[in-house]
Amino acid sequence: MFLLCPLEQLVEGKSRGFQRNGIAIVAVRKNQQVYAYVNRCPHRGIPLEWQPDDFLDYSAEFIQCATHGALFSISSGECIAGPCVGQGLEPLQVSIDAQQQVWVNELDD
Ligand code: FES
């Protein structure tokens, strides 16, 4: 498990990119939950963002890959449109401690 950031650095409805523990990560805060995934599109295995910290589609309802436009559910990481439908982003386990610090963990740890 490793520290992502203080919760206050994640803004409701917005995405943010991180490099932690050798992993590129996208985190999104939505409906007071924090979701985190490995920043790698399952289509070509490349980073997702349009520009730094900019991972969401225009409606801010989905994570969108900047290269071919695949749309991913923010809450599940599942690809719901685009060239990798049926695949998904690799989820990271998120926990928030009593000091409001956000921690993440790889699921296969
Ligand atoms: S690389 Fe992401 S949709 Fe093609």
UniProtKB/TrEMBL annotation:
CDD domains: Rieske (cd03467). Signal peptide: none annotated. InterPro entries: Rieske_2Fe-2S, Rieske_2Fe-2S_sf. PROSITE patterns: RIESKE (PS51296). Keywords: 2Fe-2S, Iron, Iron-sulfur, Metal-binding. Residues 2-84 form the Rieske domain. This is Rieske domain-containing protein. It comes from Pokkaliibacter plantistimulans.
